[in-house]
Amino acid sequence: MLEQEWLGAQNKIGIDIWRNKYKNDGETFDAWVERISGHNKDVAQLIREQKFLFGGRILANRGLEYAGKKITLSNCYVMTPPEDNIESIFDRAGKLARTYSYGGGCGIDISGLSPRGAHINNAAKETSGSISFMTLYSLVTELIGQNGRRGALMISIDCSHPDVLDFIKLKTDLEKVTKANISVRLSNEFMDAVKEHKPYRLHYTRKETGQTIENEINAAEMFHLIAETNWDYAEPGALFWDRISSWNLLSHTPEFSYAGVNPCAEEPLPAGGSCLLGSMNLANFVKDPFTDHAAFDYEEFKRCVGIAVRALNDVLEEGLPLHPLKEQQESVSQWRQIGLGIMGLADLLIKLGVTYGTSEAVRLCHNIGFAMADTAIATSALLAQEQGKFPKCDTAAIMSTPYFKANTTPATAELVKQFGLRNSQLLTIAPTGTLSTMLGISGGIEPIYANFYERKTESLHAADVYYKIYTPIVEKFMKNHNIKDDSKLPEYFVTAMTLDYKQRLAMQGAWQKHIDASISSTVNVPNSFTVKDTEDMYMLAYESGCKGVTMFRDGCKRAPILDTDATKHTTPAAGEGLARGEIVSVTDDVVGKKKKLMTGCGSLHCVAFFDPTNGALLEAFLSKGSTGGCNNFMIGLSRMISVTARAGVDIYTIVDQLNSTGNCPSYSVRRATRGDTSKGSCCPMAVGNALLEMYNEVQAEIAQREEATHNAPVVKVSAKPKAVAKVKESMFCPQCGEPLTFEGGCNICKSCGWSKCY
Question: Structural domain boundaries of the chain?
Answer without folding.
Answer: 76-246, 570-726
